[in-house]
Design goal:
The protein is 73% helix and 0% strand. The mean pLDDT is 85. The chain is built from 14 helices and no strands.
Length: 300
C-alpha cells in the first residue's frame, strides 16, 4: 500500500483548493467578458421563455379573438393584440420556441456535419480534398439568404425544410474553417502512429483529429446561432418559412410591418425588438467564446 506523508497530503489539499470552482470561473468570465455575459443573459432569458412559455402567459398563441383585434397595449394585453386578436406578448414568448428550435438544430447540425467533412477533407487530401473544396466554393458563392430561399423553394415551406435550408450553407462555412486547422493536425506524429497501428480512417478522423479542432468548431457554432435565428425570421417574413398559425417572430413582422404600420405599430415593433435582442445576444456571446477559446487572442 502506498502511503503519503503529512506534507504530501497537505500539498494535495492545497492543490485542490487552488483549483477554481464553477462559480469562480463564471465570475471570471463575467469580469473579463462583460459584453459576453450580457449576451449570455439574453440567451438564458430566451431559453427560459421557451421552456416555461405555458406558465409565463395564459393566452393561447393560436386562438383568434375577433372582439379584441388591434387592441393597444393595456393591463390585459401588455404588448397589444394583432389583426386576429391574438396576444402579442404570448406570440413573442412562444415564438422563442420556434427561434431556438430552428437556431439550435440548424446550427448544431450544420456545424457538426461541417466538422466531420472538414476533418475528412484535410485527412484524405488529394483529389478528394480538391473536389470537396470546389463544392464548398460553389456553396459559399451564394449569400446565406439566397441559398436558403432556393432550398425552401425546392423542398417547400415548414419548420423541417427551413432547418434543412439553413443547415446547408452552415456546413460549407464550418467545413472550410475546420479544414484549415485540421491540415496542421494531420502532420502531427500521433496521426502517423495511429495509421501505423492499423486504426481505421473513421477512428482517426473522429477520435484523434476531430477533438483537436473543437475550439474553431465551438466558435463557428455560437456565431451561427444568431445567423440561424435571423434567417428563420427572414424566411418567415418572406412567406417561405414557418407558416401560420405557428408562432414566429418573422410571421409577426409580416402581418404588421406594412398594413398596420401607422394604425397599430406595436404589431411590428415588439417582434423586431425580440429578433434584434436575440441576434445581438448570441453574437455577443459568440464573440466572448471566441476570445476565450482562441489562443492567439488569449496571448494578448
Amino acid at each position: 500500500m502506498v502511503t503519503l506523508s503529512e506534507a504530501q497530503v497537505e500539498s494535495k489539499f492545497e492543490e485542490l483548493a487552488a483549483k477554481p470552482t464553477l462559480s469562480k470561473k463564471l465570475w471570471e468570465f463575467c469580469r473579463k467578458q462583460p459584453l459576453g455575459a450580457a449576451g449570455a443573459a439574453v440567451v438564458l432569458v430566451m431559453i427560459f421563455m421557451a421552456v416555461f412559455a405555458d406558465f409565463i402567459t395564459h393566452f393561447d398563441p393560436e386562438a383568434n379573438d375577433l372582439a379584441n383585434m388591434l387592441t393597444a397595449p393595456d393591463e390585459t394585453y401588455i404588448l397589444g393584440t394583432d389583426q386576429f386578436g391574438r396576444d402579442a406578448f404570448t406570440r413573442i414568448v412562444y415564438g422563442a420556441r420556434t427561434a431556438l428550435l430552428v437556431g439550435f438544430v440548424s446550427a448544431i447540425a450544420g456545424a457538426t456535419i461541417g466538422l466531420v467533412l472538414g476533418v475528412a477533407s484535410a485527412y484524405f487530401g488529394g483529389r478528394f480534398d480538391l473536389l470537396f473544396q470546389r463544392v464548398m466554393d460553389v456553396v459559399m458563392a451564394f449569400p446565406l439568404i439566397v441559398l436558403a430561399l432556393a432550398v425552401v423553394a425546392t423542398l417547400g415551406t415548414g419548420v423541417e425544410n427551413v432547418i434543412i435550408a439553413i443547415i446547408i450553407p452552415f456546413i460549407a462555412r464550418c467545413a472550410r474553417v475546420v479544414r484549415s486547422n485540421a491540415l496542421a493536425i494531420r502532420e502531427i506524429p500521433y496521426v502517423d502512429a495511429a495509421r501505423a497501428l492499423g486504426f481505421s480512417h473513421t477512428r482517426i478522423i473522429l477520435r484523434h483529429m476531430a477533438p483537436n479542432v473543437m475550439a474553431p468548431y465551438l466558435i463557428i457554432l455560437t456565431a451561427s446561432l444568431g445567423q440561424a435565428i435571423l434567417l428563420e425570421a427572414a424566411l418567415s417574413y418572406l412567406g417561405m418559412g414557418v407558416q401560420e398559425p405557428t408562432p414566429s417572430w418573422g410571421l409577426m413582422l409580416q402581418g404588421g410591418a406594412e398594413e398596420f404600420a401607422t394604425t397599430a405599430p406595436w404589431i411590428a415593433i415588439w417582434p423586431g425588438v425580440a429578433i434584434s435582442l436575440a441576434v445581438f445576444g448570441f453574437n455577443l456571446f459568440g464573440d466572448a467564446v471566441r476570445d476565450v477559446l482562441d489562443p492567439k487572442l488569449r496571448a494578448r
